[in-house]
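Severity: low
Component: inverse-folding endpoint
Summary: output formatting inconsistent between runs
Steps to reproduce: submit the following structure tokens with default settings.
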């Protein structure tokens, strides 16, 4: 937003403004082959990044959402770290029920 003052006729001019950051929720969902913690991060400020989710799986999980990246912790757990949060989003792991089901495409 742009605010334009009227003519400034004295030595001092004061402009006061107030704003609040947008807040978002980052949720998670998984399929039956793994677990993810936490199930959500709430009241996240716009522009926050590096929220972490811990995924437990016996094989490398397929993970997507929130512009993140996956790190293998070498002990059956994986860390998914989000990118910059600019809206509500969901981290989906291990064939979550909200994602596509590839076997249905074969029918």
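Observed output (run 2 of 3):
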């Amino acid at each position: 937003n742009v605010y334009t003052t009227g003519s400034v006729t004295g030595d001092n001019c004061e402009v006061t403004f107030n704003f609040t950051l947008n807040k978002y929720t980052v949720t998670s969902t998984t399929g039956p082959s793994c677990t993810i913690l936490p199930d959500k991060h709430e009241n996240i400020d716009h522009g926050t990044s590096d929220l972490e989710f811990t995924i437990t799986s016996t094989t490398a999980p397929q993970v997507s959402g929130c512009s993140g990246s996956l790190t293998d912790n070498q002990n059956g757990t994986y860390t998914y770290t989000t990118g910059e949060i600019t809206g509500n989003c969901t981290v989906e792991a291990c064939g979550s029920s909200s994602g596509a089901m590839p076997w249905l495409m074969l029918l």
